[in-house]
């Protein structure tokens, strides 16, 4: 408080020349005006009032209180020397003059002090308004951040820009590469990291200008919520130590960063809970669908095999052959179900584990069609492939499984005498596959959830029949893992149409410079 009062009373060295010139110009102008008034009116009775006005002007256009007092003293001296009889002489012995001049000096000083105080309050209000706007702008930017890393980068940039100094921001004590902004050099990484770890541990400012300086270049502050340190902010100010206003502004900024990090942590935890809940729900639904799909063919196999074992001699050859045929079909169904389960397992391990190699799309389609024709003797297909040779990076086994699932789905639900159409073409940077039937199509209300995988195309629960209830869900997972898209829609002239795309070129990760 004493330092601030002393700074107001003493002239500001940074603008002492400008303030002195302004004061001198105002005093000369006031003196000239008094001479002009004395020349016109024949006396200078208003000289003191004009000098009092000059004190107000000096207070408004200079810094601090010093120049107001200088102007007040100069006005008293000028009035006595220039405009009081005997002229051009100092005379304070006349009756009433000492009290008059003393009152004038006091009034001028008080007026100048009040004017300077009003101007200072106006300047402080402008500074506070500007800082409030800066804080609001920082808060809006923090609200748009989508991760803790974005908050750290934004915090370092805001500290550097608003405090006009290099800044850094650590999200954890183990981070050896903090977010930085500004010219940072001449530091010892080991000392700086030791100071940062101390702040995380003790929740106290450390570094340059503190008791625990330890040769650090930066001054580190904790960004905490409650008693938990969420991050550490470091600044390298040009002036040491920070003045009171900048220190308060820094604390407000750190509070903004703490709220943003706390909000992001809560958002991440909530998102993780949602993901875990979805995984658990998907796991339960998958096990339910698999158990029901497996139970149906196993029951058929068990019944047919028991009939053969118990009554094999009494069953006619044609009936025995039919039972064996049923066992074969159910076993084939189980094989396809296991293939789908294996596909789910491979996709669940993540897209980077896919064995993607360039494959000729025509060959993959041909293999899928041949397998479908062996499994479905009554299948009627029309295959259209382009004349040009198309190569696309893919896991051939999985894409073949997608085509098989879509073709079998069209065969089961299409129920049309017209052949199922399989079309392949190049569409820009993608290879496009289309499987279309000419059946009744898909109910419009089913389209948004068709790839959820637990209802058939006709809306019946997949548990009620051997419907491969997870087939379409697997298809979407495989295509998504390949970086493509899959779409289900109804054709303009009837029937359902499934379209999926695969990139023709392998995407490479972005390399930062």
Give a brief rundown of this model.
This protein has 513 residues and is of the alpha+beta class.
Structural descriptors:
3 domains, Heat Shock Protein 90, 5-stranded mixed sheet, 12 strands, 12% strand, alpha+beta, 513 residues
Commentary on this structure:
By secondary structure, the protein is of the alpha+beta class. The chain folds into three domains: 2-138, no CATH class; 146-265, 2-Layer Sandwich (Beta-Lactamase), CATH 3.30.450.40; 355-503, Histidine kinase-like ATPase, C-terminal domain (Heat Shock Protein 90), CATH 3.30.565. The chain is built from twelve helices and twelve strands. The protein has helices at 2-9, 16-41, 47-61, 66-82, 97-143, 148-163, 189-202, 244-311, 317-348, 361-375, 396-414, 471-481; strands at residues 167-170, 179-181, 206-207, 219-225, 228-235, 357-360, 381-384, 391-394, 420-427, 430-436, 486-490, 496-503. It is elongated, with a radius of gyration of 43 Å.
